[in-house]
């Protein structure tokens, strides 16, 4: 199905207008980014919505793009190659000076190259250092507080784990004691059974021997009763 051509006029429906604005703004920024990457161009896009909200995209510093635009606009023509070269030379000199100033300020913060400063500048530098030191101490205190809280949490966790291990150890210890008691009771029962069996084996043969002895003593008596008496000579 062929899509119809969009009529270029204001969309009256507020919801449809907002949806279209969001979609087309995203597409516009995407195309601007592709143009900057593919063609090595400096691209900047500024968009204000109907509600006054600002949306922008820049392939480099938006401020440098705007300054370059003003320079070009003042000349009422696009910069030539020589003019553009001079502009970038001036930009490089400005950045070099800015870097030098930053390095100089850094050395002064370290307490170096203070001979050229007057009292007010030194006082301002001192106030700046005190403020920086105050912020550093606040950050240090915050860091230490977070570390202490983290250590306290770890300590609490370790105490809980230690308590759990202690309960497990006590349970295992009690279980071992119960097993030893059961083993001792079974060992006692086995010893008692062995002792009773030994007494029985020692007592039984003695009774048999008594019976044999009684039998042996009684046999001559029965034999004497069965034989006729021998007459005695007078």
UniProtKB/TrEMBL annotation:
Family annotation (SMART domains): MADS
Native source organism of the sequence: Eragrostis curvula
InterPro entries linked to this entry: MADS-box/MEF2_TF, MEF2-like_N, TF_Kbox, TF_MADSbox, TF_MADSbox_sf
Ranges for region Disordered: 184-234
PANTHER family the record matches: SERUM RESPONSE FACTOR HOMOLOG
Compartment list: Nucleus
K-box domain sequence ranges: 85-175
Positions with biased composition (Polar residues): 193-204
Protein name from the UniProt record: MADS-box transcription factor
Coiled coil residues, start to end: 85-112, 148-182
Keyword terms, alphabetized: Coiled coil, DNA-binding, Nucleus, Transcription, Transcription regulation
């Amino acid at each position: 199905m062929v899509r119809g051509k969009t009529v270029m006029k204001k969309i009256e429906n507020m919801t449809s207008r907002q949806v279209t604005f969001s979609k087309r703004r995203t597409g516009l920024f995407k195309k601007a980014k592709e143009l900057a990457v593919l063609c090595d161009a400096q691209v900047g896009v500024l968009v204000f919505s109907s509600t006054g909200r600002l949306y922008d995209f820049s392939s480099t510093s938006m401020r440098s793009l705007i300054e370059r635009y003003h320079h070009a606009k003042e000349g009422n023509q696009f910069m030539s190659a020589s003019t553009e070269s001079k502009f970038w030379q001036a930009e490089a000199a400005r950045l070099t000076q800015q870097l030098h100033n930053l390095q100089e300020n850094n050395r002064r913060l370290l307490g170096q190259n203070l001979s050229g400063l007057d009292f007010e500048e030194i006082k301002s530098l001192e106030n700046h250092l005190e403020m920086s030191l105050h912020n550093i101490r606040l950050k240090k205190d915050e860091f230490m507080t977070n570390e202490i809280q983290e250590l306290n949490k770890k300590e609490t966790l370790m105490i809980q784990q230690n308590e759990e291990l202690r309960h497990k150890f006590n349970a295992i210890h009690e279980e071992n004691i119960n097993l030893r008691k059961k083993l001792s009771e079974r060992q006692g029962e086995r010893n008692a059974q062995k002792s009773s069996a030994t007494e029985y084996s020692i007592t039984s043969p003695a009774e048999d021997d008594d019976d044999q002895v009684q039998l042996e003593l009684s046999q001559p008596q029965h034999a004497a009763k069965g034989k006729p008496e021998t007459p005695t000579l007078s």
